[in-house]
Sequence to fold (440 residues):
Amino acid sequence: MFANLTDKFQTIFKKLKNKGKLNENDIKNCLHEIRIALLEADVNYKVVKEFIGSLHDKMQQEKISESLTPTQQIIKIINGEIASTLGSKQKDISMNPAPPTIIMLVGLQGTGKTTTAVKLANYFKKKGHLPLLIATDIYRPAAIEQLQVLGEKSDLPVFSMGRNESAVNIVKAAIKYSSKRNHDILIIDTAGRLHIDDKLMNELQEIDENIPFQEKLLIVDAMAGQDAVNSAKVFCDKIKLSGIILTKLDGDTRGGVALSLKKVLGIPIKFIGIGEKVDNFELFHPERMASRILGMGDVLTLIEKVETAYNEDELIKLNKKMKDHNFDLNDFYLQLKKMGNIGSVDQIMDMVPGFNNLKNRIDVAKLGDREGELKKIEAIICSMTVEERENPSIINGSRRKRISRGSGTQISEINRLLKQFNQIKEMFKKGSKLKNFSFN
Fold:
């Protein structure tokens, strides 16, 4: 995500580092390049103007041109400004002291609202809550059935009353139903439209006026550009929203929507969707996202993801293998399967500081968590001897031919696997040094 913007910031920083001490003209050119980068990333032009103005003032206050380490100070200031633009601090869901906590999801059709409802319910389920999904989209064909199917796949209950009841009556009935079964989180999947119309807005206002919500969250498609921001403004004008869930962020190489929403709407981004799986859903941390946009990684999120995928004993064993330089191809295969639970290799490398350049040299598409790739890797590794798995450096040309015949793969695929093994080994070693993957 944000790949284009990250690359442009990295280019700007490289130019600054090559200059050493900066003069006023250097700073002026830097601000100009940042302005162009943000506009090309489809950031709202008013947000860009405010962003550049604030950067200029802070650079003047810090007396950047007189500093011995101007580039470091500029990066620090930009990082802080991006975090502020994104919302400064992470904002979680407001919980009702007397359950249930009722959350309404609203948005245009096609933003991923139904899928997001399931992801949000799964998020609370993993935290020990008992969520209930409520189907109120009585207009879109198969909308209720879609929620039911997705809910069943994730072992999440869904309340529905068909298409003959109003949305308000469905929600009221669901509240009574939930009280008898101790559901403490109610998530309402409302109807969407291909465009904003009076019927949609009137129905949402009716629900809003009759139900005591703790949260009203707008679902926004990160890939929709400034159209998404404009549509979001209409929702904010009609309903007092409490936050935003930004979907499809993994496909957004520009970042304009994410950087515009908080400033334009005045409400925080609370969650982000970063993939199709039900677990591809995270709390939104502005300061961490700012660091990732600048290509500085996001170690805290990486550690949190690792801790959900591994238990403590597994982490201790992995740490020991890395420290003793005993990480072999058997471990490599197991880690690839584990990484499927953490995210794609591309996503993981975005979170490790200093790996931006290495990522560009790796064929990350071949390192995904797809079953086909894992089966091929397993076939190759199973065709090796115990000695070869434990010490891959001994695999010469003749051994590769034998492994190729035994696994039914090409020698080029074996070469790629061995190259990937060394790169992943390097990545795990660096990640281990950064935080030691501890639970402290």
